[in-house]
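Quick one, tokens below:
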């Protein structure tokens, strides 16, 4: 299939390119390198020997999109491009709505211009908000607590309405907590500045870049008091996109899928796994809870298994080991 990937130079996008090229799909990438680097794409090319086309530009630029779509004539779009920092979204709401919501609308319009009717969308488990029950299934009420989460929820609705109106296909993937890196240690996550997320922060403590991890609260109602999340290996997550592209090929309508493992781990369990993988001690200090954090998030991922034939295969040890391999081989990320 001819698959157009937006945000292909990002963390999840780049791992997905590797898996799509591995399945011999024809791939066109667009990215504006807002939070990524051209080096990512050259590493993906080396890794796969796969050929892909690339165009640099913004998903809000209708003229740019139209010309790329007309040239490539995609069968499907996998739409990753967007802003993703929860805290920043509360400070810059209009920017988040602009990129994540208006950008999604521009993509749908460009798809209309060439009659492309199938999209796989990068949504987030954060749309669920405070759990009414756990594990979350896809019918759990949606009540995001951040601007970021609301942009994902609104984009889901817009894509669903678009699919409904034109007999199209919308596969909406709600990711849990992506971690880890490709086994080659040539692509991985490289956050700019101080990492917000647990694993990149832990990796930087292990490598000596940061002194210690702050554990945000150990008084949650969990066995060891620290927050629990459903961490999913980014390579498993990338494979879920290949499954979603295949699913979209054979189906119409809108379908939501949780993409998680169904298993949660605490902050302390993640730190212990990382210490084991790296052979280094991670100094920790307990600080007050982070605003907006909840005790536990966990997916019911059975729909993805039954309907897309996808399930996570890689466990905690792989997540920790690959994060460490990536971090220790690329202490400055993609900077040479
Ligand atoms: O320095 C840190 C960073 C995190 N944590 C804790 O580690 C856990 C995971 O935190 P992350 O920031 O890594 O991930 P979140 O679950 O907060 O959020 C992530 O997963 C969500 C979906 O589950 C959304 O997708 C969101 O965008 C994404 O950042 C939480 O208990 C958090 O309190 C710490 O103790 N110290």
């Amino acid at each position: 299939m001819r698959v157009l990937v937006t945000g292909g130079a990002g963390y999840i996008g780049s791992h997905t390119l590797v898996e799509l090229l591995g399945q011999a799909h024809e791939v066109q990438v667009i990215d504006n390198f807002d939070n990524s680097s051209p080096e990512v794409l050259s590493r993906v090319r080396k890794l796969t020997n796969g050929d892909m086309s690339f165009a640099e530009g913004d998903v809000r630029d209708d003229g740019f999109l139209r010309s790329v779509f007309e040239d490539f004539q995609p069968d499907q779009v996998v739409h990753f491009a967007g802003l993703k920092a929860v805290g920043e979204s509360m400070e810059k709401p209009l920017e988040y709505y602009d990129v994540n919501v208006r950008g999604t609308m521009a993509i749908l319009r460009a798809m209309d211009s060439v009659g492309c009717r199938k999209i796989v969308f990068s949504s987030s488990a954060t749309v669920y908000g405070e759990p009414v029950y756990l594990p979350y299934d896809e019918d759990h009420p949606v009540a995001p607590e951040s601007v970021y989460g609301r942009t994902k929820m609104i984009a889901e609705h817009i894509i669903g309405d678009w699919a409904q109106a034109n007999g199209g296909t919308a596969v909406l993937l709600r990711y849990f907590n992506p971690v880890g890196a490709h086994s080659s240690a040539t692509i991985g996550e490289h956050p700019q500045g101080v990492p917000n997320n647990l694993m990149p922060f832990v990796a930087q403590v292990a490598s000596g870049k940061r002194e210690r991890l702050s554990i945000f609260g150990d008084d949650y109602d969990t066995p060891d008091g620290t927050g629990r999340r459903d961490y999913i290996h980014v390579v498993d997550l990338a494979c879920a996109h290949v499954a979603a592209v295949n699913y979209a090929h054979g189906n119409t309508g809108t379908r939501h899928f949780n993409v998680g493992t169904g298993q949660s781990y605490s902050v302390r369990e993640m730190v212990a796994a990382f210490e084991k993988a790296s052979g280094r001690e991670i100094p920790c200090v307990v600080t007050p809870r982070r605003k907006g954090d909840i005790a536990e998030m966990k997916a019911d991922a059975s729909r993805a298994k039954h309907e897309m034939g996808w399930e996570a295969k890689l466990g905690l040890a792989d997540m920790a080991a690959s994060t460490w391999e990536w971090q220790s081989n690329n202490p400055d990320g993609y900077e040479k």
